[in-house]
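To: structure desk
From: M.T.
Subject: fold request, one chain
Message: Could you run this one when you get a chance? Sequence is below, nothing fancy, just the single chain.
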Amino acid sequence: MAGLTSSTIGRKYAMALSAMFLLIFLVMHLSVNLLSVFGQDAYNNASQFMGYNPLIQFVMQPVLMFAVIFHFVMGFVLEIKNKKARPIGYDTNNGAANSTWMSRNMLISGAVILAFIFLHMYDFWFHEMNYKYVDGLPIEESRFWGDLHGKFADVWRVALYVISFVLLGLHLAHGFQSSFQSVGARHPKYTPVVRAIGNWYSILIPLGFIFIAIFHFVTQ
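Reply: Done. Structure tokens follow.
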């Protein structure tokens, strides 16, 4: 890992791999959460499995947390390295003409998304850890849907989630294609396909999460 992150190219490659892992996780996370819209039992059963399966809890969950931390830390490192490499901007540089707003402000959107992740962990992960390991309460399969549903009773929390997922979509719109380019997956024949998939991904994934939040708010 030290060798992989010792150069700019290596850091970009490592960050791209962590991004791809998180892209897969978002699809899985959305798939489970969508079950809450179609039925309480389906969501409770899936959540009970995810919450008590040893492989998921003690292997996949730590890997996921490491990937999140690594991705954001590496993003900040690359941004700092880029600024140090060119401390004085070109007088005639017109960023808006050469790149999108999001590509120039990935650090800002990333920081907001990171703050949202802490809110999301406070709402669900810390509550779950307290339930299982601090209070040591027994398995109650019917509690998961109620916990999720109750979190979206307040309009301010729904608004925060919607804003965060809009920013996530903008972040993904640039990050999806960029991650493939960083690992060398760039070809005149395939790049337009990757770009199209990335555009749809950056729209559908955030919309799915927004739909879930609004659904639970209006069905209180």
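Reply (cont.): The CA atoms of residues 27 and 205 lie 7 Å apart. Let me know if you need anything else for the meeting.
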